[in-house]
Design goal:
about 15% strand; binds 1,3-dihydroxyacetonephosphate; 8 strands; alpha/beta; TIM Barrel; about 45% helix; eight-stranded parallel beta barrel
Length: about 250
């Protein structure tokens, strides 16, 4: 089963629209290089920049939201729905990033509702999981992440599950420059695939699982060479177009 590698830049709360558009001037070059390498690429700007970035995105260049509400419309002040994302041509959304879990109290059960809402609108969820330093040091990473996967994927059919992208991001590796070793990342990601197999059988082989956490041009190749790692979710190194180009160049 061959899973196309996926490199997604999570811009978090960075870039005003003019900066986002300036990045996108390089997008055709990025897309051409990605196509030559046979990988899929994209970025996740803030809600504010989605429409403008999408308008500049070449064919196949993914533009993703960073969050979504599980409802279609209604009295949910400050929220954006899957229906609204679809209406402006957005087809991916990151769900359950550890920063949202920490600062916005998102739980895996809440993520499950968002995942179902995205799938119902035909959008692709990029579901994040990952453990804290304390959990890692206690040797409880696999058990912790398994629960996040079980709760996030609860009640999905095989057909739905294979449309979800998982991003394993150890919290202690995010923005710290302390990336997980490729052995640790592969071990946890292969355990995630094991849980997905328990639920969805061989369909688990079709589900893409990315690694995230201090991915840089100088370490991306090692991660992507691991058998179960299907790409990367990149924060800091995705912000400058030169650095994102380098990530694509070094990816495979
Ligand atoms: P960094 O690549 O800056 O460590 O961020 C990772 C991340 O959180 C991507 O979602």
């Amino acid at each position: 089963m061959s899973r196309k590698k996926f490199l997604l830049g999570n811009w978090k709360m960075n870039k005003v629209p003019s900066e986002a558009l300036s990045f996108m001037e390089k997008a055709p070059e990025m897309a051409a290089l990605a196509s030559k390498k046979g990988i899929e690429i994209g970025v996740a700007p803030t809600f504010l920049c989605l429409e403008a970035v999408k308008a500049k995105a070449p064919k196949g260049f993914v533009v993703s939201a960073q969050n979504v509400n599980e409802h279609s419309s209604g009295a949910y002040t400050g929220e954006v729905s899957p229906l609204m994302l679809r209406a402006i041509g957005i087809d991916h959304a990151i769900i359950g990033h550890s920063e949202r879990r920490e600062y916005n109290g998102e739980t895996s059960k809440a993520c499950n509702l968002k995942i179902k809402a995205l799938l119902a609108e035909g959008l692709t969820p990029v579901y994040c999981c990952g453990e804290s330093l304390a959990t890692y040091e206690a040797g409880e990473t696999v058990d912790f992440v398994k629960t996040q996967i079980e709760e996030g994927f609860a009640d999905l059919t095989k057909e739905e599950a294979k449309k979800v992208v998982v991003a394993y991001e150890p919290i202690w590796a995010i923005g710290t420059g302390k990336s997980a070793s490729k052995e640790d990342a592969e071990k946890t990601i292969s355990a995630i695939r094991g849980v997905l197999k328990e639920f969805f059988g061989e369909t688990a082989e079709e589900i893409r699982i990315l690694y995230g956490g201090s991915v840089k041009p100088n370490n991306i190749k090692a991660y992507l060479a691991c058998p179960d790692i299907d790409g990367a979710l990149v924060g800091g190194a995705s912000l400058a177009p030169e650095s994102f180009m380098e990530l694509i160049e070094e990816s495979v």
